[in-house]
Amino acid sequence: MRIVRHICFVSQEYPPETGWGGIGAYTYEMAHGLARAGYKVTVICRSNGTESVQTSGGVTVHRIRPANWLERTRLVWRLAGFWPGFAWAAMRKFRKVNREDKVDLVEAAESGADSFFISMLLNRPAVIVRLHTAYIFAKRLNKAKPGISDGFKYWLEKRSILWAEQITSPSQAMVDLTKTWIPLAGHPVAVVPNPIDANAFAPDGTSRKTEVLIVGRLERRKLGRLPEAIPKVLARCPGLRFRFVGHEVPDVTGIPWAEQLCKWVTPSQRRLLVFEHVPREALVARYREAAVAVMASDWENFPYALLEAMACGTPVVATNTGGVPELVSEGVSGVLVAPDDADALADAICGVVGNARVMGEMGANARILVEKRFSLEKVIPQMQSVYESACNCR
User: CATH assignment of 6-194+376-391?
Assistant: First the structure.
């Protein structure tokens, strides 16, 4: 049996430089959890500025620029939308890392096809691809028109998935959705939930404000029917504040989402819609203060925004779609509603905010559920078994 000693994560998202999106949060939590468990952990990620190498918490992070030979040609303007520049640069960096200290296993997301070129190397280590949400599904959920390069991006991600020794997913729902696009028969697939550091995200007795918290990108697929529900909630709960934490994704209409959301309320109510960006340490405080955390997405895999809220003892209201029911226990740790029902969403929000007993019980149950199923201590051993199985398939 091969012993897994050195694990390399390849991820375009890795905080804090590229934010705390789902892929970045997962990579960060896993990398630091594995380092504490005694593994050598390397992360190859995108840099928004200069390239650098830093070691923190036992994790060595190589931030790279997706530069490639195409940038020195006149064809770059034609090929920029097709060429997976980060995956190419990651492969080159990986070869150097592997020469200096042999890597036993590489893990990457399917989104962006980050492991594409590494999977083509001779004598490479085992490759694990984790299903976060493929580009083809994100595009459909945002109701965006297909671009000229989209077909190629879909193919790259598909090949990355099929070339892996092992496929993992945080939810069975994501596996089932992927099977509608790619036949996975004969490919090993393991469902292992996203982990969270339950010590960093924890309740501290902070008093709850009359505030609804929405964490995540402002984009069509994540807002769902929330714009329609907000005026219904404010009609019944005047003065309730909605706090949105996350950056905006350009909408197909060209109108910023903050502007669109404000159009759903009266001029006097616009002060109740707060939009901000905060570092993760401040985000913990936002969860602790909120009366309820809401996620009204049309579809979700296994959202960190709900996992983090639950870890902080915050009750959640979410749409009953994708992998959310695998995370939230209906009526116990939160309330689930149909994704196309703005009235039900408004009723659920008001029902939690307006009942201190329900708010307290659901928040406490959410915390217990995280400790039992989703803490690093519970998830790391599951991933260790997957890693060992993948390495022994090579």
Answer: 3.40.50.2000
